[in-house]
Amino acid sequence: MAKMKGLAMLGFDKIGWIEKDIPEIGPLDALCRPLAISPCTSDVHTVWEHAIGDRHDLILGHEASAEVVEVGPLVKDFKPGDKVIIPAITPDWQAVESQMGYSQHSNGMLNGWKFSNIKDGVFAEYFHVNEADGNLAHLPKGINIQDAVMLSDMVPTGFHGANMAEVEYGDTVVVVGIGPVGLMAVAGSVLRGAGRVFGVGSRQNCQDAAKYYGATDTINYKDGDIVEQIKEAMNGKPVDKVILAGGELDTFDQAVRLVRPGGIVANINYLGSGDFIKIPRVEWGLGMGHIRIIGGLMPGGRKNMEYLARVIENGRLDVSPLLTHRFEKLDDLEEALLLMKDKPRDLIKPVVTIG
Predict the structure, then answer these.
(1) Is this prediction's pTM over 0.85?
(2) pLDDT tens, 158-183?
(3) What is the mean pLDDT of residues 60-77?
(4) Cα 296 vs. chain centroid, distance in angstroms?
(5) How many helices (H) and strands (E) does the chain have?
(6) In 3-state terms, what secondary structure has residue 197?
(7) In the prediction, which pLDDT does 51 show?
(8) DSSP conformation class of 185
(9) What is the domain partition of the chain in residue ranges?
(10) pLDDT of residue 1
(11) Which one is the CATH code of 3-153+298-353: 3.40.50.720, 1.10.3720.10, 3.90.180.10, 3.40.630.30?
(12) I need a labelling partner for 294 at 20 to 30 A (CA). Which of 102, 103, 182, 206 fits?
């Protein structure tokens, strides 16, 4: 059996390069090789925060653009040599949950998230994609392979936050956490017509990027309670929507204190630790304030990738400011992942170019 190398979680708090068999594909599947890949904070949660339990020799990573190497005999729309966008979420499209509109949870809670969760991820010389016709998207010629990686997770997750929050024309929106996902939530909210957008984060480069993407105000949580700061800026009035792209369990408390009756708190933050979320009883209208709290994994699959690619291809969104650290070979991947763990102040997102 032919072998490949990959960067894996060896166990709690341990990563390293391992050798594995090149994956075999089924009749509906594809084998791909990465062209560009990017580590994610989710990989950090998995390895160093123990968020999904112990994993041994599990190849990490779920963000990639790639070249198709091999396809199964029933794959119709893709062939070897095609350049493709790889969504972080690759559902089982025949599952009942997919037919119910929740493909992210096909065959079980979060089971649409396969890479580096329930099977090997993309941080390898080759990787497997299930149901290729439903889970690959052709890479448009007008999008480079590095920018395309942001379509795997950062753009769809951030935009999903704006969609779940049902941002409307003129809404005042607070985005808590303006790392790469939060920045895309800012951009998505602006594209949906938000009138005023607060970006909450402490790093100057992220605040600058938030303003680039359309934030009208930035708030540094290190300067004091964000509820007090935002209410002062709002002359005591509540906001319409809050999107949580960062923070901790107690951030839900702050979000509910900020939002108006009938408003929405939308969570796209990976809660890697803790047991319970605290909701303030009185500010939630004693449970009857019509404040909706919703959290959801981003949609995966082909259609979402193709539609979001149009936004970039036609100049509606520039993701290049997200890519602050660039590497040139697969062996640099470990360094790039440790950057996401340590988060130096000039980092937003690293990308590793291979092809």
Answers:
(1) yes
(2) 999 999 999 999 999 999 999 999 99
(3) 98
(4) 11
(5) 11, 16
(6) strand
(7) 87
(8) H
(9) 3-153+298-353, 156-295
(10) 77
(11) 3.90.180.10
(12) 206
